[in-house]
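task queued by scheduler; priority normal; single chain, no ligands, no partner chains; default sampling; output format set to structure tokens
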Amino acid sequence: MTRSFLFAAAIDNGCPVLSDGQRVDQMDLSGHYARWEEDFALARGLGVTALRYGPAYHRVHVAPGEYDWDTSDEPMRRLHALGVDVIADLCHHGLPPWLSGLQDPAFPVLFAEYARAFARRYPWVRYFSPVHELFVTARRSTLEGRWNDGQATDAAFVQAVRNLCMAHELAVEAILEERSDATIVQGEAAEHFHAAGVGAKRAAERWNALRLLPLDLTLGHEPAPGMARLLSDHGVSAGDLAFFRSRRAADSRWLGLTYRPAHEHRVASSGRLTMSRRGLGFRRIAAEYHQRYRLPIVHFGTSRESRFAATWLRGQWEDVLALRRAGVPVLGFTWDALTDRSPAAAAPSGGPAEPHSIGLLDLDRRPRSVGDAYRDLIARWGRVLDGPDEMQAEATA
């Protein structure tokens, strides 16, 4: 079925390795491996038409050119039978242990082979998110030292960005060779860095240039001033830069933007980051990204702690409608995640634990109030956004 708007939930399949060597497998900690049938049925009962979902990359890609599909075949086929569109989340913050982290030069080519194998094995999947949140993965792994590579240098960051972006783009080519009508939903955090005073302006400008760098590379956009020099100083070749400047599959891409309050940062003159309490909000940040890249937008994930969640949902939905009225093509909305996170998974970044009661369902699979609110929102707006009276209904919302 072709839908003009996707109402989605996400089953978090993130699997970063922390600085202490421990892997955080979100689907394991949430109980999804044992309860996937129940999770899919409950998601369908909420009315969602799409699920941002995929097998844990480190479990399937077991060696170069070797894949173990045992944990993914039955769940993928069940989603197809249920009529739920899968937005295939292929690499979410973590790599298989046989790769030497984000610095491994073999990663891009081997990942593209995995993406091709996935698209061939599940030919009914139309939507693909090859590498989720390129900047977030690189920043936490190589500037903050919290994930995967555990480094904190510009050189490590540049090589991680180069490899992640190359992996993403080679995967795009491989997927489209298998399915020419595939849609690439490129997921990134809708972040913004605010200067804490005049003295922090340059530090904030640099952070904002860095956060846009992976999208600039993968989408063939000229990077912000100073970024080309940063890349060349740390080993990105002229050939690599020429590859990134060649735009691929421009008509097959959407931009998936995740947004939470923690995505707005306050930057001190020292470069230290804290959460900004006076942010721009999703509406303004998404409009900025759309103006820069001119791609359709999907609100690719949002959440708040349970006692704030229903109000937050309404506010984010109002932003979506306002963007659409302003002419920005927003084609989907996602609550992340379907279930709460366990306390053990609440802080995979190594920082203070986030509230973990953020799901549409709790860990016992009981609906939270935001789950009821999302079900009602989908019931009201699903027919409208797929029908002829959309603009009239949005104008009176």
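post-processing summary
- Residues 6-395 form a domain with the TIM Barrel fold (CATH 3.20.20.80).
- The mean pLDDT is 93.
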